[in-house]
Amino acid sequence: MKGRIPIGVLARESGVKIPTIRYYESIGLLPEPVRSEGNRRLYGEKALIRLRFIRHARELGFEVDSIRELLALAEQPQQSCAKVDALARDHLKAISHRIERLSALRTELEHMIKACAKGRIAQCHILDALSSPASS
Fold this sequence. Notes:
Multidrug-efflux Transporter Regulator, Chain: A, Domain 2; mainly alpha; 3 strands; 61% helix; three-stranded antiparallel sheet
């Protein structure tokens, strides 16, 4: 990539949709680009690298605030990476907790489906189970 590129090219090169790029600009994850004489957004290599970073972090499930913090830390290459490590470990714990909850949900749904008599709606065990108070 040489020089400045318009938002459409940035979207294609980064794999991020144009409205999402504009959103990232509006919340400060991506700096406002320079503008052409015709007021078109023009981006450089740094914007592409940053946008790929953001996209990958989002794919890994990091929240916007964590990405903001990771980006700030990335701009301090001489600092210890302990904070980055801590953010990643916290995120991994959250993912593990989510997996546990999803596994419990899968088990509950499997039990509901096995209990299904495949009869009429009036005797549907799945609908009965959904109508019962949830157990925490």
